[in-house]
Amino acid sequence: MDDRERKPYTYRIWGLSAVVVLIFLILSFNLWRLQIAQGSYYSAMAKGNVMKLVKVPPTRGDIVDRNGKLLVTSVPEFVVHLNWMDLQQAKGNAWKDVVQRLAVYVQPEWPNANQTVESIAEDIFANIQNHQWERYRPVIILDEISPELQAVIAEHQEELPGVSVDAIPVRSYPETNLLGQLLGYVREISDPEITQFNKNTDAQEAGFEYAQGDLVGKMGVEKSYDFWLRGKEGVQQVEVDNNARPVSKQIIQDAKAGKTVQLTLDADLQKTVDDTLDQVILDIQKKNPAAHAGAAVVMDVNTGKILAMTSRPAMDPNDLIGIISEQMADKYWPQDPKRASEAASLNRALTGLYPPGSTFKMVTAMSALQLKLTTPYEQIDDRLTSLGGRGAQQQGIEEWGGNYFGLVNLYRAMAKSSNIYFEIMGRRVFDSNPEMIGQIAREFGLGIESGIDLPGEAKGISPSAEWKKTYFTNINENARKSRDEALAKIESDYAPKLEQAADETNRQLVQKEKDTEIKKINDLYKLRTLEPLEWQGYDSYNNSIGQGYNAYTPLQLANYVATIVNGGKHYRPFVVEKLLDPITGETVQQYEPKVLNTVSVSPEVLDQVKQAMRAVTTGEGTANWLFADVPEFTGGGKTGTAQIGSKDTISGEIYNGVFVAFAPYDNPQIAFAGVVEFGGHGGETAGYVAKAAFMEYFGWKNTNGG
């Protein structure tokens, strides 16, 4: 190749070399500018980057029944997430426009259909504001979104920075209202709850602290076993710059799923109890539309394990996931005080306090027999005159239904549910030892907290002479303070009015108004403190037949019966049997039965009372018909027709149906207690629930093959 042919290539090589040199000169200049000329500035910027550790929520553990049937789980659900950190990529106030656009897209599926776009946007802003304490964690804006909304958000993704559709584990209750109140539900922790949850001994031992943003159980098993169900959170490291914008994200610790909680309860038995109680309430509503509530408990008499626990109205925890509509909130937590008893969130088996009615008569019998104030065979004439003189007769309660049962001993009195017999025995006991009946009741678990592994248990009232004195002393003191404050206010309000009266006539009119107000306050004070502090004869009579101040939960009534028939061992009831590893299924922790106390009542007396309970379901007993078509049934029970209010009042004509029972007789295995509000006679209402429970548990059939 000659010089003329080589010359174009030479020019090209020189040109390319010049470009390369120029590029290196530019790179060198920029390197010098970044590292030397502006090195201090960029060094400061880099130091301004902050590493944040963000919690990665684990999958919450399952809850299963004693046979492994799934009752609660976590399922993937598509939700609209708003990531505050990514949202800040929008320039200036553009992030507000993002929220406005998002409100338009989610409006068709927003829980409150009547809300405007502007109102929805405000709700989203408020949600963001509520999570300012942790700006690097996505906020759920809307859950359970449809495929159509997913497509809309995907289509407009570019104009919605920070908004995403993600599949997250959400709590699911596949059996809907089965065990609703007992299982509970899950929502974000509130500020007052943080301190409460951090007192959990398991959490303290593990060094775990609850904080804002945590999802926790709000009631039931979800709450009491929250630490075990919640699992172990993962950790994500997020690097953000000085403007709180993300630079990088990295998972440094994986989340671990929560433990599987296995209950002592039997789902099939539970459904039988639920369905039967529902049917009983429906039947009562035909005559009394106000009837809507009830509760029942079935427990193992030899361990304290709860086998079934029903409360009506029913609760479906699925209703309380995500945003709760006003209508749904009113169903579970009515704002009207007159409708407070209708709250579907109330576990009446655990927190409902009811007068036990005649189901309390076993306590009166045990007290009289233990003090040797009677024998099982002593006969009492079933007449009001048997209470004593005219004063005693006036304070006593006549026989129910206008009946006269003639001569009755313990067994016949229990069978016929004689009021007169037990009033006489109760009066004897109180005259001999005013605290005896209250003491015996508490030994059997009545009027005390059982320590069950569920939150919100009610204590109840087991009255005695000392209790009454303390109770009414406190009431009188509070009433006196209220009276004094009200009188002082009247003086303060009327002083200027009297001073400014135009003449003596007007002054007398104002003084008359003042005197009227004072009289009202004093009359109210007298009404509130009318009850004498000392124990009265009528207190003995009322208390002996389960009326008066007596108030117990269905759980306590079931445990009381269990203690009678298991030989006097008062167990702590419990609903969780074990914790299981979610991967291997191996038992992590086993919960064992615990005897709280052994009663002071002798085995001989316990057996006598047990025989008396058998008389209720046989022969001439008030529930002799209930199990007549179930040949395999052996056991005992007690009916109760509990008056809600005082005699001669509106509620004094309303009765709850109460029933307690056990089976079989020779080797008792389970005990039952049930209450049907406005149910009347316990055998005809709650008794049907007991019958269905026993037939399901033991596999018994009636003579019709049912």
TrEMBL record:
Where is the protein situated, by its record's location annotation?
A: Cell membrane; Membrane
Q: How does it sit in the membrane?
A: Single-pass membrane protein
Q: Which family does it belong to?
A: Belongs to the transpeptidase family.
The EC code for this enzyme is 3.4.16.4
InterPro entries attached to this UniProt entry = Beta-lactam/transpept, Beta-lactam/transpept-like, PBP_dimer, PBP_dimer_sf, PCN-bd_Tpept, Penicillin-binding_protein_2
- The protein's superkingdom reads Bacteria
Chief place where the protein resides: membrane
Q: What class of enzyme is it?
A: hydrolase
Q: List, in alphabetical order, the Gene Ontology terms for molecular function in this entry.
A: serine-type D-Ala-D-Ala carboxypeptidase activity
Could you tell me the keywords of this UniProt record?
A: Carboxypeptidase, Cell inner membrane, Cell membrane, Cell shape, Cell wall biogenesis/degradation, Hydrolase, Membrane, Peptidoglycan synthesis, Protease, Transmembrane, Transmembrane helix
Query: Entry's PANTHER family?
Result: PEPTIDOGLYCAN D,D-TRANSPEPTIDASE, PEPTIDOGLYCAN D,D-TRANSPEPTIDASE MRDA
> What stretches pass through the bilayer?
12-32
Report domain Penicillin-binding protein transpeptidase positions. Answer: 294-692
Span of domain Penicillin-binding protein dimerisation: 56-249
Organism lineage reads as: Bacteria, Bacillati, Bacillota, Clostridia, Eubacteriales
Which Pfam families does its entry note?
PBP_dimer, Transpeptidase
**Name of the protein in its database record:** Penicillin-binding protein 2
